[in-house]
Amino acid sequence: MLVTNRRIILTGGASGIGACALRKFVAEGAAQIYVADSNATGLAKVIRTLPAKSPVVPVEVDVSDRAALEDFLRSADAAMGGVDLVINNAGIMSGSDDFPATSLEAMSRVIDVNLIAMMIGTRLGIELMHRRGVSGVILNTASVAAFNPMPADPAYAASKAAIVNFTQSCGPIAASHGVRVMAICPGVTDTAIVPHDAEWLKPALARVEFLAPDDIVSAMLEVIGDETFFGDYVRVDNPVRTEP
Ligand SMILES: NC(=O)c1ccc[n+]([C@@H]2O[C@H](COP(=O)([O-])OP(=O)(O)OC[C@H]3O[C@@H](n4cnc5c(N)ncnc54)[C@H](O)[C@@H]3O)[C@@H](O)[C@H]2O)c1
Fold it and tell me: I need a labelling partner for 234 at 20 to 30 A (CA). Which of 52, 148, 152, 162 fits?
């Protein structure tokens, strides 16, 4: 499946990887894109950079509000007459790099935004597609943090590891419901979520080059287009620095 002429739902489109995906999907001729973000101002700013009459509908949604997220997904499906592609991409870090001092509230917000919202988007996305007989795609943004210990922000790493396992556990949905569920695992990508000046990140950033949002969106388009791929993840690793 390519994105051309497709009906798309995307979360976290106001910044970084999601904003880049939005631009690319418009350029590729998507039929319509319903894009949710809790940052309405940021989303409006991104929309202003798109060509006039782009088929994009921005909606202010906090994906940790379960009812609001479900309502957004159902409304988008109804308005577009179906959905071909759902990208559960909105994500946050805990905002603290001081575990175990990190508050339980901050950690559970990470789980709500990164994991529970992804589960809702996957579960309801499958239901909406299946109901209309759409052979669609659900793509979840995980992270290479899923595979490495992350002492500074264990809730973030755990949420991403859970996305990977949840996605792999959805493999059989391709056969039973005709929906391919998969995940993308970006390496460190130059966006607002990265605490660029954090001491704990400096050793890693000294070893590797940043990825650009465009690198991640290119990988997304590849897995979306690969009909043989489902129930698994693709890593996009950082290039290792060659000079000291
Ligand atoms: N940048 C990286 O190094 C990196 C690496 C691996 C994975 N990721 C993942 O990529 C995804 C996109 O992140 P990004 O790098 O583009 O960062 P970003 O901060 O630039 O974008 C994240 C977007 O999600 C939105 N968002 C946050 N909480 C939300 C909520 N409750 N409801 C709705 N929208 C919300 C933000 O407003 C923002 O627009 C995230 O899931 C992130 O965990 C990023």
Answer: 152
Cα pseudo-dihedral 143, 147, 151, 154, rounded to 10: 60
Place of tokens 């979306």: 224
Domain spans of the chain?
Answer: 7-236
> Which has the closest alpha carbon to 10: 116, 84, 65, 64?
84
Q: Which of 15, 209, 233, 234 to probe ligand 1 with, by most ligand atoms within 8 A of CB?
A: 15
pTM for this entry: 0.98
- The CATH number of the domain covering residues in 7-236: 3.40.50.720
Would you write out the chain's pLDDT as a tens digit for each of its 244 residues? 789 999 999 999 999 999 999 999 999 999 999 999 999 999 999 999 999 999 999 999 999 999 999 999 999 999 999 999 999 999 999 999 999 999 999 999 999 999 999 999 999 999 999 999 999 999 999 999 999 999 999 999 999 999 999 999 999 999 999 999 999 999 999 999 999 999 999 998 999 999 999 999 999 999 999 999 999 999 999 999 886 6
